[in-house]
Specification:
2 helices; 4 strands; alpha+beta
Length: 134
């Protein structure tokens, strides 16, 4: 099994509506995001997936979040993406779903290659990971 990882970052504000403590007030983070892709087959060039394609896709998604109030992020139907609770866990899942869709649409996930996890760091010592269940 092979695994590659790329990273991107964004800065954003948020508050947690259903949390009682400091994080219920509006505050910000400089988020770091890691995307992990795994698989068993390499292409003719000896790569699982081109780092550049994966990094560009992750950056596009992070750019949508950069310098926003995450509580105000809405989907195409106008609903709040994070239900007013943009925790690191929910952000990781949303980025995972967006990235997976983007990579499938581009046709770069093939031969048993899958996006396997997304990590979101709110601080250097605090990370949430989303990986789909089996």
């Amino acid at each position: 099994m092979y695994e590659i990882r790329v990273e991107a970052d964004f800065a954003a504000a948020h508050f947690l509506k259903d949390y009682h403590g400091k994080c219920e007030a509006l505050h910000g983070h400089n988020y770091k995001v890691y995307a992990h892709v795994s698989g068993t087959c390499l292409d003719n060039g000896g790569m699982l997936l081109d780092f550049g394609i994966l990094k560009q896709s992750l950056r596009q998604i992070c750019n949508r979040l950069d310098h926003t109030n995450l509580n105000e992020l809405t989907s195409e139907d106008g609903t709040f993406v994070f239900n007013q609770n943009p925790s690191a866990e929910q952000i990781a899942r949303w980025i995972f779903e967006q990235l997976e869709q983007m990579l499938h649409t581009a046709g770069v996930l093939k031969n048993g290659t899958d996006l396997c996890a997304v990590d979101v760091f709110e601080t250097p010592g605090s990370r949430a990971r989303y990986r789909p269940g089996t």
